[in-house]
Write a structure and sequence with these properties.
single chain, 254 residues, alpha+beta, Phosphorylase Kinase, domain 1, Transferase(Phosphotransferase), domain 1, 2 domains, 6-stranded mixed beta sheet, 3-stranded antiparallel beta sheet, 20% strand
Length: 254
């Protein structure tokens, strides 16, 4: 019990640190971002389809101000996922790019994130459907996806004053809107790179491994230092999956 209380206290301090940083930040001056409260959030009855289930919470489809949205809600009575919740706000509340998901707003009372709804699923589903239908994704579509993700990573890695590393690039986090334009999502473990090595490489040192197995940079696994190269490695794996007719796990296992 003592260890559990210590862990909760530590997570609470981390939560307060993120929250104070965001409230002091001018990140939202130039973009439209809305803070919701309990009274103007959809009720459980107003949220229809469950779009996805995650470790820390679920994503639901809803309508706010006559606009279809996707709402990610953390599981109640848990601190798990709170740092990721705050990091998502810190990152997506600061940037806009045509190939990055749009974070419309957030509600701290319910630990909910409100995004523009993307109806056409994710790249993982497309790749999975290819196993039975090789026409599911044309080569021109693959090329377009590759160019879009390249553009997005170049944008993130050149953000000033601190580059952003996504840290969890994988097919499940590449989503598609109604026009099949791909959008990079899930910035919960993204990081602003602040530290500089002697070689001039911006990086972020972590105590715990982040990201998804199979897409993690081996150098990061060895040093626990995140750099923009970590995203480039994951991008290479995603492109390998896109350019192969092999099932995803076959490629990842080599």
């Amino acid at each position: 019990m003592c260890n559990e209380n210590t862990a909760l206290t530590k997570m609470g301090k981390e939560h307060d640190k993120f929250r104070n940083w965001i409230e002091r930040s001018d990140s939202y001056v130039d973009i439209k971002f809305k803070w919701f409260n309990h009274s103007n959030m959809p009720t459980n009855d107003q949220m229809s389809d469950c779009l996805g289930e995650g470790t820390y919470g679920n994503v639901y489809k809803a309508v706010i101000d006559n606009t279809e949205v996707a709402i990610k809600i953390l599981k109640p009575n848990t601190w798990q996922g709170v740092p990721e919740f705050e990091q998502e706000i810190a990152t997506l509340g600061k940037i806009r790019h045509p190939n990055v998901v749009t974070l419309i707003g957030a509600c701290r009372e319910e630990h909910a994130l409100v995004y523009k709804y993307l109806p056409n699923g994710n790249l993982q589903k497309l790749l999975k459907s290819e196993e039975t239908n090789k026409e599911a994704l044309s080569w021109s579509e693959r090329t377009k996806i590759a160019a879009s993700i390249c553009s997005t990573l170049a944008f993130l890695h050149n953000t000033k004053p601190n580059p952003i590393v996504h840290a969890d690039l994988k097919p499940e986090n590449i989503l598609f809107d109604s026009d099949n334009v791909c959008k990079l999502g899930d910035f919960g473990i993204s990081r602003f790179l602040k530290d500089t090595t002697e070689t001039g490489t911006v990086m972020h040192e972590t105590k715990l491994f982040k990201g998804s197995s199979g897409y993690r940079d081996p150098e990061y696994e060895k040093t626990r230092i995140l750099t923009c190269k970590s995203d480039v490695y994951a991008f290479g794996i995603v492109m390998l999956l896109c350019s192969s007719w092999l099932p995803g796990m076959t490629v990842l296992k080599g």
